[in-house]
Design a protein that fits this description.
The complex is a heteropentamer, with one copy of chain A (291 residues), two copies of chain B (274 residues), one copy of chain C (283 residues) and one copy of chain D (441 residues). Chain A is mainly α and 291 residues long. Chain A contains eleven helices and no strands. In chain A, helix 4 (81-116) runs parallel beside helix 11, helix 6 packs across helix 9 and helix 9 (199-238) runs parallel beside helix 10. The longest helix of chain A is centred in the first third of the chain and has 50 residues, at 2-51. The mean pLDDT of chain A is 85. The longest helix of chain B has 18 residues, at 177-194. The radius of gyration of chain B is 20 Å and the shape is globular. Residues 251-274 of chain B have low confidence and may be disordered. Chain C has 283 residues and is of the alpha/beta class. In chain C, the strands form two sheets. In chain C, strands 2-1-3-11-4-12 form a six-stranded mixed beta sheet, with helices on both faces. In chain C, strands 5, 6, 7, 8, 9 and 10 form a six-stranded mixed beta sheet that branches. In chain C, helix 1 (21-39) crosses helix 8 (231-247) and helix 3 packs across helix 10. The N and C termini of chain C lie far apart (48 Å). The chains are: A mainly alpha (291), B alpha/beta (274), C alpha/beta (283), D alpha+beta (441). The B-D interface holds B 94, 96-97, 100, 113-117, 119, 122-123, 125-126, 129-130, 135-136, 138-139 and D 10, 13-14, 16-18, 20-21, 24-25, 28-29, 32. Bound molecules: adenosine-5'-triphosphate (2 copies), magnesium ion (2 copies) and phosphate ion. One adenosine-5'-triphosphate is lined by residues 11, 14, 16, 34, 36-42 of chain E.
């Protein structure tokens, strides 16, 4: 009995020191990680600050100068704003259309790519890595790169932006869709397979209905992102509201009313679709989301 | 009509079905029994070409089913309907649509995408549902039905295929005894009335005895028993299940009559304890 | 010797668009090196994507020196007269300091004059460009006797001189404007200017395009310094740039983007007209 | 049961089923039809028929061939009579006086340029001769203010563009051009010449093995140091600048994302229903998030450029502002979904509110937040490319400017490769970190 | 020491606890039983001040616990440890850290923010874990443990608080019988060895009978029974649960012994059928 207790104490001592060592090690790691992170942040900030034309501290007091210029001019010409809204509406519609088509086409491509690269569903299981790599690359190339090259190839217009955004969308959504499809229930697919259904029928009838609410939710989120992307691409030459914004803001004083009108339109659009897609996604996630 | 010749399936080092052979000359209702992992499911899945075989031949009316590819393979799948333990319906679609899926093998992809099923198919689907006693649920989503009802929808889908053969992989394993009985009776009736061959994997001896004309017993991938229900003695069952002398057949039972007895006994006992 | 180390901590030079950001930085690096030596503080070069980037820098006081176009100077002046002052201007080989806005179109487009371009797509460069927007925007309506928006099918900004040339050459737009010194031969793209650079780089075949319009002389844009800089810093930089042509012709070639007779002093008065024009365009 | 009810019962399910299928069919047709209609509208709104005619195949050819090839210019300055050989016509690619590649032979005022085994172009004073196989000898020469062109058949074939002031002869082997100022011949080669060393570097033309293990090439420097210096400082490809530009892009993404996460964390609590009971505060903070997100990094960049000028800090702050909105929204949603049992467990020990957050909330939201931060970090690497293009910094500026000026497509493809590698790398690193930090201890 | 006086809790129109009163003079192990919704959890949560009471008083050593605010309230919470049905541990943190949370009430916020716990606390935590037989899991994440182990960690956290009283809200409801027994025995041992008061909500009569000194029965928020286990007859239980004559106590049983009996009976019965 005495022997047993001694061994017990021994074991207790062991687990105590082992745990303390573990804690020490963990604290050291966390501490090091923290140091590294803080060092990265501080030194990174200093580099950015040094390489910038104006410093952070000097710039901070001036941060409102430009917005103030814009707002005051827009305020003085407030009467013109409704006219500007109307004038820029077609460009805004073009921007939204670019985003919508790109999302639509990209999402359809993403569904196909996702199904082709999901284990258990793939038409050609051996080609799964191939389709995955394709999606990776589609995701990795920034849309601005594709857009600029396409502008070179087919001239200025909405199509380069559509294609660029659609390619990126297909890659980004494809990955998400494939994660969703991975969790799909395979029983209906097997059931359909057993009646002699083709692959397309199996997917369309057995998989899509299951995953559609999730896909729709992701696609809506993407649409919202794509509206921004579409505006930005306009800024570098792909038309739409971004082009108008660039010209107005570049001219500076004298066109700040136009700039303000475009800001407001763009902001309102982004917030509108943001709220719309949040609401729709919320509905999809919490039942009632029958397609 | 069906002839299986040394059919083998290996998963890596593991041989799930090991040189199984048997012949069926006329449409019969055949039960396959065996312990879990004996290879029953694998056997059926090879016949319906859901899984590829490693070796052997499956001859149906003289043609080797294992050689079929593409369209011919799908035609075979449509000739040989499969019923699953978990029903494998499309839960979000309504019952009629699920039954109509039985015709997918014969319809063009595009037509099915847009739900263009001929009117006579729809009528036939309803007739089948009627026959199985679930026509009033036709418009409901499959997921809204009870297990027994869902399995009957699956049987309806199978019948919709106008199959030469129905394969059922433990069709009643996830059903309560009440529903199990309905489903087995439906299968038996189809066999008797339509004269279709039915091969069913079964978990329980008594079900096999009661509904089948012939019983095949599998153990560790091999066929170790092949005979009439009458030949299936408790001794034979012990061999199939690889069990010792303590083997109680009722451990596999799901039949209502037996279950009631069992429940009553438990109740009696419980009351005794109070 | 370092003159102003105690008064400024760094000196930032902004570079207007016109070629690859890298090329711009590279051809001005020698100036930055001289300036570092002369001022004794770090000198940095910034090459934002468009005119506006440099203008904002000057307005916000983050950029100390830049060589602007006349219109961009006017733009800065209109927004804040106290921000910058012009100090030097580049002179051409013949001693003049003016250049022209050149309207041009493809030879095979059938557009030989502005009148031919009626209903066609017309391209400007950057809204802040003098030759690429401001001057043609004023002079062309006078010449065609109509409003540009009405006369042309569509009027578009391409983003810069290079983009205009490429867009015309590619047929994206039917006609456009860019700048040239107007000296020398058309086939070479004149002696200097955006056309010359494009032709030299092989981007455009000068046989494939033709001149359809030429503006009155436009004053060359000034080199400006931030007004708030200490006087000795300003003087140092003026001397440095003015003498660059003698001290290092190669560097001067890079900074001035071509052959010049050097930089000469200039004052705000030279740009009054342009400023008036810009103000008129703004309202 | 009467006959009537029996037949009704028999027909009714059929009719109902038919109606049901018809309804589904309508839906199944309506969705694709709506999509199709929209696409048709877009087809005309975006003028797709016109697009086909505007598609420029020649540009595509230029792009593709330029990405993997370079040209060497042989130029005769017609005023001075000097002949120069320069890769890509650039100053840094110019062969030193007297030196020339072996396909250019010079003899006094005659320069022979062999474009291909059977293609020979000759500068003979101001005259240019080009013997085009299968066609014959083309001669062009300045004649006063004009150029005199002489072809075997006296006509001007397709591959020659001629006017009084300029002649261009283009064949598959190369291009010859004459203007008043100069005569030029271009020969095309595959590859990215001078990627490692320019002609001015002593290491140009040496194999890797030679540089690493061979004799000292430049007597002043050891081979490895010298080669590195010349490579890193390559004046044509400017590897150091490009590397910095990449670094700047990643820096903007990193600082912006992490800064935003740090700012958004406390604000996220203020916007979460279960942590900020005061509706007014919650509402206000959420609208701030919406605003920061809605304005978008692009516009923030413009608005900030006055105060901070061009450079990476401006881009960083723009990303930081936008992402504060994004993170704020994500974080507050995460916080609203926390498991209250853990908090209650900590609370039951008598822990103070801050301790409750520290032990009841932080441990459970850390993995979710971390994975959100890493996801955005990766996506911001792409955004930083674009923001750099606007604010004047990073690889985005280099890329957009190289594309806009539409020459140097080999540089464009180089940048694209670098960007793609950078994004994939960030993707991999963030995936690795996610696994490490979330699944690890 | 503990005196509850007409304690009441209303959730809107619903009265979860209705003027409950009882007194405990010495550290006892007390079981509270009652049907689901009887108000057991609400009662404990009010005592530990996790939920505010609507009316009434809770006196501990003469002081009204319900009046405590801020620091004093937290001191009380630290004096009165709570154990939950779902353990309510922080699953991603390791076992010792979870146990150390028991000291949070006494430690300064700043020190704990950086996870800096005194070494003696760590030693004590491991001692407690040892006492509960789970010291070898000290370094594992809580989520990696089985339910019974997790509940013992929760008990360890409670002990770490050095509480005057342990409240346990259905501590074994989500455990299997084996684990349930370990946990209940641990609680009993703590009560006996340390002399701490334990109040446990329990789902099952036999557990209450076996481990408790006193049993309180609640029904619809009221205390309807208060006595020794011996007084808790099946009749009394029927009143507590509001059940009819068909009430079988074993329906609530989770004890291993009884279960074995039950299983044996079933087995016997099954063999009889063969
Ligand atoms: N896809 C597969 N991959 C690997 N091994 C498999 C696969 N499917 C089945 N097996 C193995 O093959 C053997 C036979 O399995 P099978 O499912 O046919 O048995 P079963 O008789 O249907 O059993 P159960 O009653 O459990 O359904 C088992 O050992 C199983 O583990
Ligand atoms: N937070 C709450 N809000 C509203 N009603 C509540 C709340 N908590 C408990 N109730 C209600 O109070 C009554 C008593 O609940 P309590 O959880 O105390 O019962 P219980 O005896 O613990 O039951 P169980 O065995 O299910 O845990 C129930 O009617 C319950 O619905
Ligand atoms: Mg099976
Ligand atoms: Mg409870
Ligand atoms: O202002 P510009 O130099 O573009 O004419």
């Amino acid at each position: 009995m005495a022997d047993l207790t001694a061994r017990d104490i021994d074991r207790a001592g062991d687990s105590r020191s082992a745990y303390l060592a573990l804690v020490r090690r963990r604290q050291t790691y966390s501490f090091l990680l923290l140091i590294v992170f803080v060092a990265l942040m501080v030194s990174g900030f200093r580099i950015a600050n040094d390489r910038n034309a104006g410093g952070f501290v000097d710039g901070l007091p001036q941060i409102l100068d430009f917005p103030a210029d814009v707002v005051s001019e827009a305020w003085r010409n407030a009467a013109e704003l409704p006219g500007h809204f109307l004038a820029f509406l077609p460009a805004l519609i073009e921007t939204v259309n670019i985003a919508a088509v790109a999302t639509l086409v990209g999402a359809i491509a993403a569904i196909v790519l996702a199904l082709l690269s999901t284990r258990g569903l793939a038409r050609w299981p051996r080609a799964i890595p191939l389709f995955r790599r394709i999606m990776d690359i589609m995701r990795a190339i920034p849309d601005i790169v594709i857009a600029l090259i396409l502008i070179f190839l087919m001239g200025v217009g909405p199509m380069p932006a559509v294609i660029a955004i659609a390619i990126h969308t297909a890659g980004a959504l494809g990955k998400l869709f494939s994660e969703v499809a991975e969790n799909a229930d395979l029983k209906p697919v097997e059931g359909l397979q057993s009646v002699g259904a083709r692959w397309l029928q199996q997917m369309y009838l057995g998989v899509l209905p299951q995953i559609a609410p999730n896909l729709l939710s992701y696609a809506l989120l993407r649409f919202e992102i794509n509206i921004r992307a579409s505006a930005i691409l306009g800024f570098v030459g792909a038309g739409g509201i971004g082009y108008e914004l660039k010209n107005a803001i570049t001219w500076g004083q004298g066109q700040f009313a136009e700039s303000a009108a475009i800001f407001i339109l763009l902001f309102a659009t982004i917030v509108f679709f943001d709220q719309l897609s949040s609401a729709a996604r919320h509905r999809l996630a919490h039942g009632k989301g029958a397609l | 009509m069906l002839r299986i010749e040394s059919l083998t399936k290996r998963f890596g080092a593991n041989t799930a079905v090991d040189a199984a052979s048997f012949t069926v000359d006329a449409p019969r209702m055949i039960g396959i029994i065996g312990a879990s992992g004996a290879g029953k499911s694998t056997m059926l899945r090879m016949i319906s070409r859901l899984t590829d075989a490693s070796e052997g031949r499956i001859l149906f009316d003289g043609r080797d089913v294992l050689q079929l590819r593409g369209r011919a393979k799908r035609a075979w799948q449509s000739d040989c309907a499969m019923i699953f333990q978990q029903f494998n319906l499309v839960p979000r679609l309504d019952v009629v649509s699920n039954v109509l899926h039985g015709t997918l093998g014969q319809r063009s992809t595009l037509a099915t995408m847009f739900n263009l099923f001929p009117r006579e198919d729809i009528h036939r689907a309803i007739d089948i549902l009627e026959r199985l006693g679930i026509a009033e649920h036709a418009a409901k989503r499959a997921e809204a039905l009870s297990g027994g009802q869902q399995q009957r929808v699956a049987i309806a889908r199978a019948l919709m295929q106008e199959p030469k053969m129905i394969l059922a992989d433990e069709p009643i394993a996830s059903l309560d005894p009440m529903n199990a009985q309905t489903v087995m009776e439906a299968l038996r009736r189809i066999h008797e009335e339509d004269g279709r061959m039915v091969i069913a994997n079964l978990h329980t001896l008594d079900t096999a005895r009661r509904y089948c004309d012939r019983v095949i017993g599998m153990r560790l991938g091999r066929i170790v028993f092949d005979g009439t229900p009458a030949q299936l003695t408790t001794g034979a069952a012990r061999d199939i299940y690889g069990a010792g002398a303590d083997f109680s057949e009722d451990a596999t039972s799901t039949e209502i009559r037996d279950r009631d007895l069992y429940a009553e006994a438990a109740l009696r006992d419980a009351e005794a304890t109070v | 010797a370092p003159v102003a180390a105690q008064e400024i901590e760094e000196f930032n030079i902004g570079l207007l668009g016109g070629e690859n950001a890298q090329d711009r930085l590279a051809s001005n690096q020698c100036l930055a090196d001289y300036a570092t030596e002369a001022l004794g503080v770090p000198v940095k070069l910034f090459a934002p994507a468009d005119y506006n980037g440099v203008m904002q820098g000057l307005l916000g006081g983050t950029i100390d020196m830049a060589w602007l176009g006349a219109s961009s100077y006017a733009g800065v002046y209109v927004q804040d007269p106290e921000a910058v002052e012009p100090v030097l201007v580049k002179t051409n080989l013949d001693g003049s300091y003016s250049y022209h806005s050149i309207g041009f179109a493809r030879t095979d487009s059938g557009i030989g004059s502005l009148q031919d371009a009626e209903g066609k797509v017309f391209g400007f460069g950057d809204p802040n460009s003098t030759s690429g927007y401001l001057i043609p925007q004023v002079e062309i309506p006078q010449e065609i006797g109509a409003d540009m928006e009405e006369f042309f099918g569509d009027v578009r900004f391409t983003g810069g001189h290079e983009q205009t040339i490429v867009a015309v050459a590619n047929g994206d737009i039917d006609a456009g404007v860019t700048w040239a010194d107007g000296l020398g031969a058309w086939e070479d793209g004149y002696n200097s200017g955006a056309l010359r650079k494009a032709a030299d780089a092989g981007i455009v075949d000068m046989n494939a395009i033709q001149e359809i319009w030429k503006s009155k002389p436009i004053p060359e844009g000034p080199v400006v310094l931030r007004k708030a800089l200490p006087d000795d810093v300003k003087q140092t930089m003026v001397d440095l740039v003015q003498n660059l042509h003698e001290t290092d012709p190669d560097c001067a070639y890079g900074v001035a983007a071509g052959e010049t007779a050097g930089f000469t002093p200039i004052t705000h008065d030279a740009y009054e007209t342009i400023i008036e024009v810009r103000k008129a365009e703004s309202s | 049961m009467t006959d009537a009810t029996a037949s009704l019962a028999a027909t009714d399910p059929r009719a109902r089923a038919e109606a049901g299928i018809r309804r589904q069919r309508r839906i199944a047709l309506a969705i694709p039809a709506a999509i199709l209609l929209y696409l048709i509208y877009i087809f005309f709104a975006f003028d797709l028929p016109g697009l086909a005619s505007r598609l420029r195949v020649d540009n595509m050819v230029t792009l593709v061939s330029d990405t993997w090839s370079y040209k060497t210019h042989v130029t005769r300055d017609n005023r001075s009579g000097d002949v120069e050989v320069a890769i890509e016509g650039e100053r840094q690619g110019t062969y030193a006086e007297g030196a020339a590649p072996d396909w250019v032979t010079r003899d006094g005022d005659v320069t022979e340029i062999r474009l291909a085994p059977d293609h020979l172009a000759v500068f003979d004073g101001g005259q240019v001769r080009y013997d085009v196989p299968g066609y014959g000898l083309v001669t062009a020469e300045h004649d006063g203010r004009d150029i005199a062109l002489d072809t075997p058949d006296g006509t001007v074939p397709d591959f020659i563009s001629a006017s009084g002031a300029r002649v261009d002869i283009t064949t598959h082997a190369g291009r010859v051009s004459l203007t008043r100022n100069r005569n030029e011949v271009f020969r095309y080669f595959a590859g990215w010449e001078l990627f490692f060393f320019t002609l001015s570097s002593p290491y140009h033309g040496h194999a890797a093995g030679e540089i690493l293990f061979g004799d000292r090439i430049d007597p002043d420097r050891s081979n490895i140091v010298g080669a590195w210096q010349d490579f890193w400082g390559n004046p044509m490809w400017r590897h150091a600048d490009v590397a910095w530009a990449l670094g700047e892009t990643i820096l903007m993404a990193f600082l912006g994302t992490m800064g935003a996460a740090l700012v958004a964390l406390p604000l996220g609590f203020a916007a979460a229903r279960n942590f900020a009971p005061v509706l007014a505060i919650r509402f206000a903070v959420r609208r701030v998030f919406d605003f920061a997100r809605g304005v978008d990094a692009l516009i923030w960049t413009i608005l900030l450029s006055r105060a901070f000028g061009p450079g990476p800090l401006t881009g960083t702050l723009a990303i930081l502002l936008t992402d504060t909105g994004t993170f704020g929204k994500l974080f507050s949603e995460t916080l609203e979904n926390v498991d209250t049992r853990q908090i209650e467990g900590v609370r039951s020990t008598g822990a103070k509110p801050l301790q409750r957050y520290r032990f009841g909330v932080i441990p459970q939201i850390t993995p979710v937040l971390l994975s959100q931060v890493l996801y955005l970090l990766e996506s911001n690497t792409r955004s930083a490319t674009i923001i750099g293009a606007i604010t004047g910094g990073g690889i985005g500026l280099l890329l957009t400017q190289a594309i806009i000026t539409q020459k140097d497509w080999e540089e464009v493809s180089y940048y694209i490769v670098l960007i793609v590698v950078m994004v994939i790398l960030m993707d991999t690193v963030s995936g690795w970190l996610r696994n490490k930090l979330i699944r690890g201890d």
